[in-house]
Amino acid sequence: MNCFSDRIESINFVDLGCSGYLDTKWSNLLPLLAYTGFDPNQEECGRLNAQPHPYQSACYLAYAIAGETGMQTMYLTESIYCYSLLSPNSSWLKRFSFANLFTVKGTQPVTCNTLDALVETNDLKADIIKLDTQGLELPILKAGEKLLKKAFCVETETGFVENYIGETTYAQIDEFMRSRGFLLFDFQYHRASRKNPLADSGKHQPLWCEAVWLFDFIGQNTVPNREQAFKSLAICQALRYYDYGFELASYFKSLDLIDTEMLNFLENPENWESARKPPSSKLAKILKLLPQSLNRRLLFALEQLLQSSV
After folding, report:
1. CA 262 → CA 241, 267, 272, distances in Å?
2. pTM strictly above 0.90
3. Helix (H/G/I), strand (E/B), else coil: 43
4. Closest to 81 (Cα-Cα) out of 271, 266, 279, 297
5. Rounded distance between C-alpha atoms, residue 40 and residue 107, angstroms
6. pLDDT for residue 84
7. From CA 205, how far away is CA 207, in angstroms rounded?
8. Is 273 helix (H, G, I), strand (E, B) or coil?
9. Which of 67, 85, 215, 295 is 20 to 30 A removed from 222 (C-alpha atoms)?
10. Is 124 exposed, middle or buried, given 0-12, 13-18 or 19+ CB atoms closer than 10 A?
11. Number of other residues whose CB lies within 10 A of the CB of residue 91
12. DSSP string, 142-182
């Protein structure tokens, strides 16, 4: 358990595009998470709501989150994990070996909501926001400024090119997040092979990436409340950003949000590391060995295999 847990009631985690699993980097925070997952796929949300969960609380909502409210068209693809309010860029994707996952099987009208609207109507809160929204990350964040202002950590998954028509790309996300006072702390890019005889040879083009952003309280001269301060330290510990955590702790001490005893405790790196423990479940142990880029459809298949073997 995180060493800050006794000072935190819960950490609000908003997951946009919640099909599949949280990455194992979040494992040490799971008992603290008040988790809200959004996915426009009703069947997937029903499956997730019916399953036991490791969180403090969990709710999966079949809402389509977009940059504006109203009716839009959902493109239903061969893989449910590629469903999007944007049409797949078929002329581009057909050059790659995974193009069949983006084959459009039909469309469906969906009622879309914005994060800011949900802040008003559902009292939505977020300390952590994770976005895997198939090319809509930037318009969603722009229509979610009220939620973003209270968040400390944002994880985005964005393409380097328009894998969907009209997709906003990583370069745009980078500019936006920096303009809102967030610093880049992690970056993982994912490659895809072209559909030709050399698909299994050599290196391939990076098409999309995952990035983790943390808010810069110091650079933005922002004063959080005491619980926000401890939540940010807990997130730094869970993600192993100890030096940034200590820099924040020193800043929080200057604001009288933490005491000298806590700051001295945090000066020892062992006190950041000792509270961490590996995931205990069979699935989590296996997932830790897998590359993060593994398609979520494979993770779902793995879960079914493990359950059938018990």
Report:
1. 17, 9, 12
2. no
3. helix
4. 297
5. 13
6. 92
7. 6
8. helix
9. 67
10. buried
11. 8
12. HTTHHHHTT-SEEEEEEESS-SBTT--BHHHHHHHHHHTTE
